């Protein structure tokens, strides 16, 4: 038997004993944190079994013993807003100190990319950041993570809002917090736990999924380990490529694809601009080639031509008639000067090799940024391009946040519980639009799930989908975005909920509207109604727009009345015309309608419909033309009066 020197063994035992004896807290606690006022304040962590832990904050001192599982928890008594304080957590062997602790209002900010969207990318970002010097606004940014089982800690730290840190704050959360602080004059803490492109099901616990008849089946298929996930993902990826194009190319094939006469007759076509994961290449991280023929008229002056491509995610190598004209990594506008003589009248070929290492991929610019030009000539480039996959990176089939349900709940939400909060603001739904009918159940299920885990029915405020032309959806062809908005509106039946309508402040061609200022203000207005109804600062209780109430048929006209009218209905149009209304008869065919205000009612009719049966308002993916408001400036909620079958009723999560 090999003998271990006594000295080494003794030192090893000391190290183990010291490590076990250290009092630890999860990273939701930290210097600069904001803790919730006027509620019991849970504090928890780990220590040796039966070790006594003492917590001191703002003249309060409480003690508790760690259990046999090394876990401990205590509740500090409710406190009023104030600070800065120091919190001391002391055990037998060590003490943990947190400085610059404030008591105020704590809000969880969650959802997908429009909540994750940073202040640096919002409208008027430079001016907003220069003014973002608010020492009483703090953010805990939770690092992205996934897990098949619940975790007990996150990675992240609290930061104070300054012009140096503010660019990384959630833009919606920042504007929400700024408005709340003006209303309440107390510190505001934001816990930013969000991830772009994620489904609501990944934010839902396994216990909640087991309570839903559809999600129960999905929950039963959750794998035990990620090794299983990776193996299955690679099999799916290989099968996808096989079905898409048969095989991946050799290096020689790729080199040929840059040339003018490459055979691309079997290539598929894609509306090139925008994330390719939404355009037929879901979850793909890798390399994709795009090709397009450009016909240039005879007699065109082609000197000093420049190719404009907008932004690329992540990198491109761009060829014109077989010649490399430029390459660039990272975002930013591409403008490549072309040698004189490279372009010729007649047929020309552009070939772009785009490489994406993770997340969104493709040509991310706007159509207006995509053209060939010199001082005398501008040639717009078509959105439809031929494409072919060249490489699939392993990250394509590694598990992502949407691979299975529960993963973000386990890794990015459960470790935050039971940190005391006032409520949640939520901006998500784009990724669930294809299953909008099911969202009527799964969204309220998620809200109730979070509340049950926290142990109280905190306010839950959410943003309704903005106008965006996701797929030309409307009343004639069906609109999953309109159906998702309807599911969000129906969720207002839950107590302590509020919704910010944003149909008037989206962008038709961008799923990420830059105007986050108004989103934050509208959420803050709802917070004042739902969370702070007795606040002295809440002098105006109108926080939302008109909501459809009743319809009465009068001959060939439909007369609509509304709730939440405030001081009265208005049409935001210099001529007083209302837009966005449609009417249908028993044939269920909708026609654009004339609508006018008569007092606080809206009268709708169309010459093509003699007996109205149903009215719709703002029922389209891109419903940005809607213009019915109350006098307080809040937009009306899009609606329909019918219950006719939509286009998403059969779609289920996991199918």
From TrEMBL:
One of its GO terms (molecular function) is hydrolase activity, hydrolyzing O-glycosyl compounds. Residues 1-21 form the signal peptide. InterPro entries: Galactose-bd-like_sf, SASA, SGNH_hydro_sf, SIAE. Residues 410-527 form the Sialate O-acetylesterase domain. Keywords: Hydrolase, Signal. One of its GO terms (biological process) is carbohydrate metabolic process. Pfam families: SASA. The keyword Signal applies. This is Sialate O-acetylesterase. It comes from Spirosoma validum. The lineage of its organism: Bacteria, Pseudomonadati, Bacteroidota, Cytophagia, Cytophagales.
């Amino acid at each position: 038997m090999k003998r271990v020197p006594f000295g080494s063994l003794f030192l090893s035992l000391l190290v183990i004993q010291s490590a076990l004896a250290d009092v630890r807290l999860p990273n939701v606690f930290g210097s600069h944190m904001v803790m919730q006022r006027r509620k019991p304040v849970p504090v928890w962590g780990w220590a040796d079994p039966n070790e006594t832990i003492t917590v001191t904050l703002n003249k309060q001192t409480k003690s508790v013993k760690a259990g046999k599982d090394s876990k401990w928890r205590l509740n500090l008594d409710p406190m009023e807003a104030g600070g800065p304080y120091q919190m001391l957590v002391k055990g037998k062997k060590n003490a943990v100190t947190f400085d610059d602790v404030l008591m105020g209002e704590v809000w969880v900010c969650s959802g997908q990319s429009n909540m994750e969207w940073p202040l640096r990318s919002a409208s008027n970002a430079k001016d907003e950041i220069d003014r973002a010097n608010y020492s009483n606004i703090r953010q805990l940014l939770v690092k992205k993570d996934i897990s098949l089982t619940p975790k007990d800690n996150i990675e992240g730290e609290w930061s104070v809002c300054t012009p140096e840190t503010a660019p990384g704050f959630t833009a919606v959360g920042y504007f929400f917090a700024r408005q709340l602080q003006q209303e309440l004059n107390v510190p505001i803490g934001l816990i930013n736990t969000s991830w772009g492109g994620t489904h609501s099901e990944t934010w839902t616990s396994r216990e909640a999924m087991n309570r839903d008849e559809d999600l129960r089946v999905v929950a039963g298929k959750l794998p035990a380990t990620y090794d299983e996930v990776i193996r299955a993902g690679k099999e799916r990826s290989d099968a996808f490529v096989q079905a898409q194009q048969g095989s991946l190319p050799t290096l020689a094939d790729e080199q040929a694809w840059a040339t003018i006469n490459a055979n691309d007759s079997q290539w598929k076509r894609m509306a090139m601009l925008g994330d390719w994961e939404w355009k037929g290449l879901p979850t793909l991280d890798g390399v994709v080639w795009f090709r397009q023929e450009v016909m240039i008229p005879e007699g065109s002056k082609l000197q000093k031509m420049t190719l404009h491509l907008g932004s690329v995610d992540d990198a491109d190598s761009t060829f014109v008639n077989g010649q490399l004209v430029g390459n660039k990594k990272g975002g930013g506008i591409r403008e490549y000067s072309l040698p004189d003589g490279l372009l010729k009248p007649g047929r020309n070929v552009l070939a772009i090799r785009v490489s994406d290492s993770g997340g969104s991929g493709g040509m991310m610019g706007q159509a207006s940024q995509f053209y060939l030009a010199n001082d005398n000539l501008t040639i717009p480039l078509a959105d439809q391009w031929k494409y072919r996959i060249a490489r699939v990176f392993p990250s394509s089939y590694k598990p992502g946040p949407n691979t299975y349900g529960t993963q973000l709940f386990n890794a990015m939400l459960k470790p935050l519980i039971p940190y005391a909060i006032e409520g949640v603001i939520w901006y998500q739904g784009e990724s669930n639009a294809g299953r909008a009918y099911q969202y009527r159940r799964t969204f309220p299920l998620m809200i109730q799930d979070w509340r049950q885990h926290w142990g109280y029915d905190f306010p839950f405020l959410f943003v309704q989908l903005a106008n965006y032309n996701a797929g030309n959806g409307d009343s004639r062809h069906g609109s999953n975005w309109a159906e998702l908005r309807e599911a969000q509106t129906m969720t207002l039946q839950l107590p302590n909920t509020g919704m910010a309508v944003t149909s008037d402040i989206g962008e038709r061609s961008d799923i990420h509207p830059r105007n986050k200022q108004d989103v934050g203000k509208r959420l803050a207005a709802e917070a004042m109604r739902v969370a702070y109804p007795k606040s002295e600062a809440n002098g105006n209780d109108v926080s939302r727009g008109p909501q459809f109430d009743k319809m009465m048929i009068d001959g060939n006209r439909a007369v609509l009345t509304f709730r939440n009218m405030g001081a009265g209905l208005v049409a935001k149009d210099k001529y007083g015309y209302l837009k966005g209304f449609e009417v249908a008869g028993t044939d269920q065919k909708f026609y654009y309608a004339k609508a006018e205000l008569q007092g606080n009612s809206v009268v709708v009719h169309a010459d093509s419909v003699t007996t109205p049966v149903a009215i719709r308002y703002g029922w389209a993916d891109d419903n940005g033309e809607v213009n019915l408001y109350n006098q307080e400036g809040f937009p009306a909620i899009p609606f329909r009066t019918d219950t006719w079958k939509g286009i998403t009723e059969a779609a289920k999560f996991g199918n």
